[in-house]
Design a protein that fits this description.
Largest sheet: 5 strands, parallel
Number of helices: 10
Distance between the termini: 47 Å
CATH architecture of the largest domain: 3-Layer(aba) Sandwich
Strand content: 5-15%
CATH topology of the largest domain: Rossmann fold
Mean pLDDT: 80
Oligomer: single chain
Strand order of the largest sheet: 2-1-3-4-5
Length: about 230
């Protein structure tokens, strides 16, 4: 089965030319003229890689990439930027935003094909090494946490063997972890940095003697540490 690509560019001529060239090289390509349409396509089918322009109306490439990286489903999805902005500072901004490759217009289509093939091969190799990707691990943890919340009435609460003193901020983080939120979402809710949230989660692991978010939530529910 050929790799599935999503191409996002508001220039009809370039979009059609790139789509045709990629399809000639064996890829299946869905095309969108803007980030909004592309996002809708992603809800029905996740591609193997996204190729996106940066300078687009309403939602530009950087904002689209941020939207992708904020969603656990697309956190590790390879993204290639195609753009007329080829200054070094622009490329740095693209990489800092989380893109995997940056190709300035005008570009050699053979170079684009080579970049796409390289990223797809790297992703396949990475997925094969660990048996499951980081995305799958996150999704599994969220599912387990939500499953525990759904079955909460079946969890017998017992007094904790030792008293655990949590600061108000640690309690807030614990409550949000128990809701299935990831660190970036928690940071946004509490108006703090992701680094600070990571520190609080680490402290919670230490205080409860747990090693994962799933263990932490189970411990909290069993000992009445969260509502």
């Amino acid at each position: 089965m050929s790799a599935q690509l999503l191409l996002v560019d508001d220039e009809p001529g370039l979009r059609e030319a790139v789509q045709d060239y990629l399809q000639e090289h064996g890829f299946t390509v869905q095309a969108a003229s803007n980030a909004g349409d592309a996002w809708q396509m992603l809800q029905t089918k996740t591609p193997d890689l996204v190729i996106s322009d940066i300078m687009m109306p309403k939602v530009d490439g950087y904002q689209f990439l941020e939207q992708l990286r904020d969603d656990p489903r697309f956190k590790s999805l390879p993204v290639v930027f195609l753009t007329a902005r080829g200054m070094t500072t622009d490329r740095i901004q693209g990489y800092q935003a989380g893109c995997d490759a940056y190709l300035s217009k005008p570009f050699d289509p053979d170079e684009l094909v080579a970049i796409v093939e390289n990223l797809l091969e790297r992703r396949t190799a990475t997925s094969g090494e660990g048996g499951s990707t980081e995305l799958e691990a996150i999704a599994r943890q969220i599912a387990e946490i939500r499953g525990m919340l759904d079955q909460r009435t079946g969890i017998v609460q017992t007094p904790p063997p030792i008293r655990i003193d949590l600061t108000p901020r640690e309690q807030s983080v614990l409550d949000l972890v128990a809701q299935g939120l990831m660190n970036k979402e928690i940071a946004r809710r509490l108006e703090t940095s992701v680094r600070n949230v990571e520190k609080y989660v680490s402290r919670l692991f230490s205080k409860t003697g747990t090693n994962s978010r799933t263990e932490l939530v189970r411990y909290a529910l069993e000992h009445g540490l969260t509502n």
